[in-house]
Amino acid sequence: MANIKSAIKRVQIAERNRLRNKAYKSAVRTLMKKFMISVEKYTTNPSPEQMQEIQERMNQAFSKIDKAVKRGVLHRNNGARKKSRLSRALKHRLEPASVAS
User: Fold this and answer.
1) Is 19 part of a structural domain of the chain?
2) Is residue 64 included in any domain, yes or no?
3) pLDDT tens digits for 3-57?
4) In whole angstroms, what is the distance from residue 68 CA to residue 94 CA?
5) Which range marks the domain in which residue 81 is found?
6) pLDDT at position 82, please?
């Protein structure tokens, strides 16, 4: 353990930041999983309500990703990649099978 007062403070700040980063990353992963589950449900049983839920979950995920990037938890390219994967997953699920071939 550190003996110098400034080093002790840096250890405390690093721990605080680690917990904040962990919370953001966990929330992003959870929202992405919920979005993917919603997309899967829509492909099995398409309905306007399901599409509304997909849009809502996508907005929540995008918002949380943008906040994580803004606060420095995620690199901006990492955030862009996550958003791109969500958009691509939705697009590929909604395409007709004949077009995807």
Assistant:
1) no
2) yes
3) 899 999 999 999 999 999 999 999 999 999 999 999 999 999 889 999 999 999 9
4) 28
5) 27-96
6) 97
- Under DSSP, is residue 56 helix (H, G, I), strand (E, B) or coil? helix
Number of folded domains that form the chain: 1
0.85 surpassed by pTM: no
Residue 24's alpha-carbon distances to 50, 55, 99, in angstroms, are: 26, 21, 37
Give helix 48-70 / helix 5-44 axis angle, nearest 10°.
160
Report yes or no on 41 lying in a domain.
yes
Determine, yes or no, domain membership for 16.
Answer: no
Nearest to 90 by CA among 41, 18, 26, 19: 41
pLDDT tens, 81-99?
Answer: 999 999 999 998 877 654 4
